[in-house]
Amino acid sequence: MTRPTDRPPFPGTAKRSGRVGLGRGFSAANSNTRITLPGSARVAAAPLVATHSANLGLNSDRLRFRMIQRLRNQGIQDERVLAAMSAVPRHLFVDEGLASRAYEDAALPIGHGQTISQPWVVARMISAMCENRIPVKVLEVGTGCGYQAAVLAQFVKEVHSVERIRGLYELARDCLRALKLVGRVRLSFGDGMLGLPNVAPFDAIVVAAAGVKIPPVLLEQLAIGGRLIAPEGGTAQRLILVERTGAAVWHREELESVRFVPLRAGTQS
To answer: Is residue 151 a contact partner of residue 85, using CB atoms and an 8 Å limit?
Structure first.
């Protein structure tokens, strides 16, 4: 739900790192596409519904191909992520009136004062979260329209996603149902700042809204060795990558400047 503001070249982005503990103030593309993972692991992408090219007035397959080429040129190198984004028809997750813009590198409104994140941001966050590993169980905080969850579901075995706005929860459910992904993405309506303690620990957590600080409860729900990526800050925001390296030790890196909607507590019917 964002756009980057001063994106440096990737990889090799400027960052600051450190080891912190909670006690030190760290509150914290086509149908039947097959995705080939490193080594011998293979995951079959879920069959997708027919793309609505008639509604687009354009060829969505061609536009997705161009989007993937643009992501490569912008420095995204994780083939799992590129294949997953190639498989998911982004135009099905936006209002029909905006479908012709679905494959632009732009955040688009999805109602309720929220947006679908631009493709580069989705690819960047997932790539960083999954670098050199294939997480088995992932938590997404802020489902929105369900696009990022659909991308994750292409190569992650178990995706849990929490949305606090009832209208968006229902929108995401309908979009994921149309793509036959409801069983692979386990949606919850609730306060994402609380995570899902009954399902934790998670191999990875991705947060799609910016808090002034990352909620400590989410850090506690990371498995040791797990990674969390989230925007952090108020007016000025940066992507933060956190890896849990011990029972009470987290390693933190600051990445690009971004602009996300605020992370809020509670639910909205």
So the answer is: yes
| pTM of the predicted model as reported, rounded to 2 decimal places | 0.81
Contacts 24+ apart (CB under 8 A), 14-18: 15/253, 15/254, 15/255, 16/253, 16/254, 17/251, 17/252, 17/253, 17/254, 18/251, 18/252
Class at the top of the CATH hierarchy for domain 2-260: alpha beta
Q: Which amino acid is at 243?
A: E
Domain ranges of the chain: 2-260
Whether 232 and 210 have beta carbons less than 8 Å apart is answered as yes
Maximum Cα–Cα distance for the chain, whole Å?
Answer: 56
Kind plus residue range of the DSSP H or E element containing 141? strand 137-141
Catalytic residues: 117
Alpha-helical runs (H) found in 157-233: 166-178, 216-220
Show Cβ contacts of residue 174 under 8 Å, excluding neighbours closer than 6 positions.
none
Residues in the chain: 269
SS3 169: helix
Buried b (16+ CB within 10 A) or exposed e, 211-249: beebbeebbbbbbeebbbbbbbbeeebbbbbbbbeeeee
CA–CA distance from 74 to each of 10, 67, 116, 212 (Å)?
7, 10, 19, 28
Summarize pLDDT for 8-53 with one digit per residue, the tens.
344 434 444 444 443 333 233 333 333 333 333 333 443 343 344 4
Structure letter (DSSP) for residue 38: S
> Residue 113: helix, strand or coil by DSSP?
coil
- Strand 249-260 versus strand 2-4 pairing type: antiparallel
Pick from 97, 94, 78: which is nearest to 86 by CA?
A: 78
